[in-house]
Amino acid sequence: MSSMSARVAEVIPFSWVDGPGNRFTVFLQGCSFDCLACHNPQTIPPRRPDTRDASVAELLEEIRSAEPYLAGLTVSGGEATGQWRFIRDLFGGVRADPRLRRLTTFVDTNGHALPRVWDELLPVTDGFMVDLKALDSDVHRRLTGRGNELVRDSIRHLHGSGRLHEVRLLLVPGVNDAPDQLARTADWLAALDPDLRVVVIGFRRHGVRPEFQVLLESTPELVAFAREVLERGGLRTVVTV
Ligand code: SF4
Prior knowledge:
This protein is an alpha/beta fold. It has a single domain, classed as Aldolase class I (TIM Barrel, Alpha-Beta Barrel), CATH 3.20.20. About 35% of the residues lie in helices and about 25% in strands. It has 7 helices and 9 strands; from the N terminus they run E-E-E-H-E-H-E-H-E-H-H-E-H-E-H-E. The protein has helices at about 55-65, 85-95, 115-120, 135-145, 150-160, 180-190, 220-230, and strands at about 5-15, 25-30, 50-55, 70-75, 105-110, 125-130, 165-170, 195-200, 235-240. The radius of gyration is 18 Å and the shape is globular. The structure holds iron/sulfur cluster. Iron/sulfur cluster binds next to loops.
């Protein structure tokens, strides 16, 4: 059994919004980005006073308690891949456990990780859900504090591996919703795979830090418009939230 432990912000034993079906979701503490639109900014620092150190064995026991009701396990954040060795060992533990091995394993990520991290996770991970905060690197930097070169590489790499479950686009009005940028995003993603599942999420201010409460919320009309642009660009599986 692995002796790894992780800095855990929160565990949700039953979630319907973190991948397919009912999922046990682990939110790891610490993030490589500092997004203006972050709904969980308390997960950004590497550690907080209430951060829990949880071992692989402890979490496997908690997952076993919920197992009859689960379709799978998701690790999210913060940024999950900041503690990728823990994910590798946790998912490896799931695969090695006769009761748990039927569960699917997913990672919810901002995509800012090197190819070797994905290659370590691929043997034990069924699917990756990757955020693309903006196609243009300068817009991405404005939104997150970092450029998106690694994110774009990750999307290509994971798609090539056959494990890219979906790409998520968070629409922040006035920041990343310009029609030409949406059209170029559609072109880029459709060139990768027109059947790629793309999820458009309307920005809400809930949970966002006080200094960023000035950001505008997405309207249903904007989300519908974005979907139309993406579909016109050749994407056949666009979902809105
Ligand atoms: S990547 Fe996610 S957790 Fe990290 S700062 Fe951005 S929104 Fe928050």
